[in-house]
Amino acid sequence: MLTSRRSFLRTATLATSALSASRVMGANDRIRVASIGLGGQGRGNAGRIASVPGVELAMLCDPDTAALDQAKSSHPGATTVQDLRKVIDAKDIDAVVVSTGNYWHVLAALWACQAGKDVYVEKPISHNIWEGRQLVQAARKYKRIVQGGTQQRSCPVQAEIKAFLDSGKLGKVKWVRCNHYSIRPSIGKRAATLAPPTTCDYHLWLGPAQDLPILREKFHYDWHWNWNTGNGELGNWGPHILDDLRNIVFRDKITLPRRVMAGGGRLGLGDAGETPNTHFVYYDTGDVPVIMDVHNLPRARDVKANDFYRRRRSSAFLIIECENGYYAGGRGGGKAYDAAGKEIAGFSGDGGKGHAANFIEAMRSGKSSDLNAEIEQIHYSSAWCHLGNIAYRLGRNSGFEQAKASLKDLEQWQEVTGDCEAHLAANQITLQPGDLQVSPLLEIDPARETFTGASATPEALALLRREYRKGFEVPEAL
Ligand SMILES: NC(=O)c1ccc[n+]([C@@H]2O[C@H](COP(=O)([O-])OP(=O)(O)OC[C@H]3O[C@@H](n4cnc5c(N)ncnc54)[C@H](O)[C@@H]3O)[C@@H](O)[C@H]2O)c1
User: Fold this and answer.
1) Which residues is 262 bridged to in the sheet?
2) Which of 33, 125, 276, 402 lies in the 20 to 30 Å Cα band around 79?
3) 175-188 burial string, b = 16+ CB within 10 Å, else e?
């Protein structure tokens, strides 16, 4: 009771301070930024934002003092705090960069919006679809500039690829395959819960997530592979690749797919992870079909090389199949091939190195339309990943014959299930009952961002959101 009253008061106070804290940035005003979350990506983001002219990296925040010390050595002038609520309450901080684990993204970003600060938030911008929409609403209500961390949206190559597709050289798009293939070993399986590092304030680290036993071996980073804190590999790489898809192929016109179906398993590991390491998804977009395929097993057993797709051997890829050839590309650019497989065009990018600068430019102009990765678009791209995960989690025990039969007329589904079967055979994995799970085809109402018809089961609807730990609830009403 006390906690909820305190959090009510906090929301009320923050809502008032939004008006006083926000200020319109002039072209020469110094912008004071706090970097929240200082693991691998957070330290990189801190460096990138600090190097934008006119920015002062004024505060560093992480519940783990070891991460704080490491970041402070690169930014000695910045104040350090363990509790991000101190950042939210700091009146002289204009913007925050949120690079925590996924489960903290929305609450940290939303509190910052309420306090009148602008936000750069890492991908996936949410841990579930409902809270992602809450963040978009908060950005609108508090009139904040909120940029999602899919930095390739700031890479000039994306416009070049769009122009090439528009030139008609490849003809019409027929379908799209999105792949991410890499190798991730077991995260271990402990008998007793892992003690957090002594340098880390666990209560602050946990925030909105549930206090569940941690049975993996490594505390940081491997939160990705438990549903309580992470969104698996689809939620890790998917936001980049599916954001490229939505931007380059659909020009942001398709918000969410109309139907989704997924299959996969966590195979060959026997560890404490819950998210699939083998995951294939079909998205019915109402336009061309889209397949996403994710593997974390090697190309073959005992081979230290990523799996590969017939069109191109690389880890993160968008393959756009067209009438007269195809485009295959990653974050750094790609190549176009004609129907005979001959390369006809090449594209190379800068990896989106101007993304932090684009955020600061939009802060100065005060126009969210100046952002290359405005929060609503990245909410949608993150939601595609959540839908693929929900479908997997609703899956039932299946074999490949059954999986293939469930979409027997969809050539691309036949291809991806066939690829997966061959991939598991190459890894000498024999499926046991329960190893492979495949979902039904789930119907989505894109406007309401929910399941519809027979797919709107209590189980499915529950996965659109989460139970928040007391004191760290994403507010229902803003
Ligand atoms: N855009 C990209 O290319 C890219 C690349 C890598 C990671 N990421 C994203 O960045 C995020 C961080 O990834 P990572 O690899 O650095 O993970 P990580 O586990 O190494 O680091 C996360 C850090 O956040 C800290 N943290 C946890 N709770 C916090 C809180 N309440 N306040 C402040 N800090 C808190 C942790 O202590 C840890 O230091 C993830 O969401 C990931 O998806 C994006």
Assistant:
1) 281
2) 125
3) bbbbbbbbbbeebb
Q: Residue 98 forms beta bridges with which residues?
A: 36, 121
Label residue 17 by pLDDT band (50, 70, 90). very low
Tell me how far the alpha carbon of residue 431 lies from the centroid of ligand 1, in angstroms: 34
CA distance 273 to 271: 6
| Contact (CB, 8 A) for 257 and 444 | yes
Instruction: Determine which residue's CA is closest to atom 5 belonging to ligand 1.
Output: 41
Which of 99, 331, 350 most suits a substitution to test ligand 1, by most atoms within 8 Å of the C-beta?
99
- pLDDT tens per residue, range 361-418: 999 999 999 999 999 999 999 999 999 999 999 999 999 999 999 999 999 999 999 9
DSSP category for residue 249: I
pLDDT at residue 331, rounded to an integer: 64
Classify residue 225 by its DSSP letter.
G
Residues touching ligand 1 (Cβ under 6 Å) are 36-42, 61-64, 67, 84, 99-102, 104, 122-123, 149, 151, 204-205, 207, 220-221, 236
Place of tokens 């109309």: 258
Q: What whole-number distance in Å separates Cα of residue 375 and Cα of residue 136?
A: 6
Query: Is this structure's pTM higher than 0.90?
Result: yes
Q: How far is CA 325 from the centre of its chain?
A: 30
Averaged confidence pLDDT in the chain: 93
Nearest protein CA to atom 19 of ligand 1, as residue: 221
SS3 377: helix
CA 50 vs CA 74, 96, 176, 321, 447: distances in Å: 10, 12, 37, 40, 38
